[in-house]
């Protein structure tokens, strides 16, 4: 019963739409890859990627179910993997290329899940580069596969890794706001890809930890542990059966 | 920073996951088509559709930017358009076929945006039919193209057509809940496809009105009009510039 839509926002929306500007020759395509393997790209996305001069894969906010090599074989083109460092500090080269040539920046899931990618679109537009978006499935909509009605989700939270000295638990306040208003909460679990240990970071050593994620059972326990000392919240009741754990292969 | 995830739900989630059950030979594929044209289907979706014995397009909760003919040409297969009547009353034939053959049910956007499709998956599973989902972009995630952060959206509302005798304004309460909690609201606007007039419905005449949608400017005005008599809500302030109108071609 729904197609056209309207957004009521709290803040004035950015007037810089990420699409529609003309530039001389080049173009930056932000291409969502979906959530599974190399074949979850759209036909439009694949055709676009195959004609691009440069293909860059954002590889630190999320991880696809297949490695870069398999993407390269499927696209029949080389793909440059960009870790956090590359995206944050070395994307000037990519944007410069996009002033003259067609360039694809590939994002696991959909394009604007992470603010990093919105920033990149804004930067490109400020440089006069044409920006085009090819959307795809995101966990923000595919989570409906668990059977909960997508309309009834409230704000999304992230659950970070806890360390000995840093236990950020502010996410629980958002869960409580949602629950009080009768909404579900989608909680995204932190991953660490090419992260330095605190010691290596302090010493400026580029030694990286192996990739890891907040394991699902640990996340459930963490929420309960976080709630325990805050007794006034306990009346809301979060029995274990009220949480659903999803992981990447949810669409298979 | 996010991949694996966890859902905290208000209700106990349905234990019947829509994927993973084995059946004898057949399969029902629920395939998201994305939001634009025939090329917004995923490569996996296209490969699946092309080998299916039956292809059905759900055509009343949303409308694609291209007509069925163009889909048929692209898939190189016939496509049966299912209007509301067919989905609600005539899908038994489709499900029966899916007990023996591979069958695709195509949905504009992503698969589980509308409860109708969840119901269909549940029905299929109850009949012992294997169900597979191929996700795609939905307006529920692609709306991030407007520049607003997807994490900060609250519950979604629908704005229906107002008639002389029926002006459902309960959506505004949800908008207020979201706004008070600092969240954006995605408001989906009603469309009418193959709908009967009240008179024709009462007389049992299968005469259908031409397709139409709640036009965007009218929706903005409707919200303001709805707020007017509820003076205690006016302190929340919804100036016109706090709404963003999106329409189907947002991804181009």
Question: Overview of this structure, please?
Answer:
The structure is a homodimer of 252-residue chains. In chain A, the strands form two sheets. A five-stranded parallel β-sheet of chain A has the order 4-3-5-2-6, sandwiched between helices. In chain A, strands 7-8-9 form a three-stranded mixed β-sheet. The two termini of chain A are 27 Å apart. Chain A is globular and about 55 Å long. Mean pLDDT of chain A is 78; it is low at 1-23 and 248-252. Chain A has nine helices and ten strands. Chain A is α/β, with parallel strands linked by helices and 252 residues long. In chain A, α2 (68-75) links the parallel β3 (54-58) and β4 (80-82). The interface between A and B is large, with 107 and 108 residues.
Top keywords for this entry?
globular; disordered C terminus; 10 strands; homodimer; alpha/beta; 252 residues; 9 helices; 19% strand; 5-stranded parallel β-sheet; 3-stranded mixed β-sheet
What helical percentage do the residues of chain A reach? 25-40%
Number of helices of chain A: 9
First-residue to last-residue Cα separation of chain A: 27 Å
The whole-angstrom Rg of chain A is 20 Å
Q: Mean of the pLDDT scores of chain A?
A: 78
Given the C-alpha coordinates, what overall shape of chain A results? globular
What percentage of amino acids of chain A are in beta strands?
Answer: 15-25%
Largest interface by residue count? A-B, 107 and 108 residues
Q: Spell out the helices and strands of chain A N to C.
A: EEHEHEHHEHEHEHEHEHE
Low-confidence stretches of chain A: 1-23, 248-252
Task: Return the structural class of chain A.
Answer: alpha/beta
Number of strands of chain A: 10
